[in-house]
Amino acid sequence: MNEVKVTRDGLGHLHGVLLERPFTRTKVSLWKIPHHNSDPEYNLKIGRYNKARINNAFTVDEVEVDEPKSELTLRGLELNALVSFLCSDFAALKDGVKRFISIDDSFTKDNVDYLKSLFSHPEKVSLVNLLSSNDVIPADILVAVGHIKRIKAIEEFEKMLAEDLVEHKWQKWFEENSWVLGTDFVRVLDERRIDTDNISDLLVEAYDGFLDIIELKRPQGNLKFWAEQKDHGNYVPHSDLVKAITQSAHYIYEVEREANSNKFRERVGGIKTIKPRCVLIFGRSYDWNEEQKECYRILNSNYHNLTILTYDHILERGKRILSHSKPSR
Fold it and tell me: How far apart are CA 298 and CA 237, in angstroms?
């Protein structure tokens, strides 16, 4: 930190070098000018100067450019405006923010869309907490914006169901919208690798702090849920579903094998692994008849660490969550 000096007249001054180049030096000087009848005034001088060699040493000689002069002094009000600009606008520019919403602005649809773009930031939780704790934006507006974001997510989900998308697209959607999985899970982990041979679709932290698995099979691709023929009068899983169930069980087994591995524990952020469960999201169910719905219920009841959901179950769950979380007017 540079030393603050005071002249005989009581003027405090502070000097520093902003940039040193081979033949020029950019310097800044800050002056505190006391006034008898008012608060002191601060002046800032900044300039770029040519170096001159004297006795084999460089010293500041003259301003680099005379027209326009590469030296400027900002007085009280100008300096205050600059400080305000740097504290607010520069930080936003550095972080990629393109505009602000004044508290006095009418809260239009454009402002809502802008807030949604803010909440897509990787550190959106911290951002929301900051806005809320400092009363920058009322809490009910934050809730409303979050609700709108979820509505858009469900609309996107429905559109995706009509397209032939690869699993990676679905992984990305669930990573960004883990809320649709319900309160059983608190977050999706960045790590997906179980070991060198097995990579899950999603590893998640459950509400109790333990590790669970989400396995996705894209709803398109001609994967069938029920076999074409009944067995003893009952609907039975198609071989496509049996393969997905087997793969899910294998992932559970491999995760249990890695439970005591320090390397695996580090990769998943220290989350404990005890009796992991798996949610398998497979196929469609919008056109099921009542008998198929009953057989599905029976099928799921036979697994203690595996839950099978269809994409239509996820869609219906998302819509129900939205209906219960709709902000009051």
Answer: 12
